[in-house]
What we know:
By secondary structure, this protein is mainly alpha-helical. It contains 7 helices and 2 strands, in the order ααααββααα.
Amino acid sequence: MTTLHERMHRQARAYAGDADRPLxxxxxxxxxxxxxxxxxxxxxxxxxxELPDPKPxxxxxxxxxxxxxxxxxxxxxxxxxxxxxxxxxxxxTGPAELKEGARGTGARKxxxxxLSCPFCTGLWIATGITAGTVFAPRATRLATTTLSxxxxxxxxxFARTAxxxxxxxxx
Length: 171
């Protein structure tokens, strides 16, 4: 009779083939996330926190803030020391953005993939913002407003650069 561990290991090998896909570590990250969400929920209920009633403006503000913080965490050169234990530098991908790959195996690789991917960090960030709106709504609104303003400023920088290039090409 095979143990659950043996069956899971066999399933991971069948899934990944020769690729290094740390399924057990991904499962661990999902467990950490689920435990965090459960803890937030239990704490909100135990402290009788009122759940917010988000309006479309809140969703837009939180989406921009999540986008911007995800880019800052996963791509910004200044935050590379936070990613360095889990990633390796591969080059740049655009203005003020780094391309990094996950390094190591197991949990180290899974965390490296999480920290170097703005899409991957987005769920964690959005969850943090949601928790912030429950426990510290004013501070969270200030932070999301700041991050959203920075996102808008970045988009304007890109638009200005594109317009300058277009004007230079036509003159």
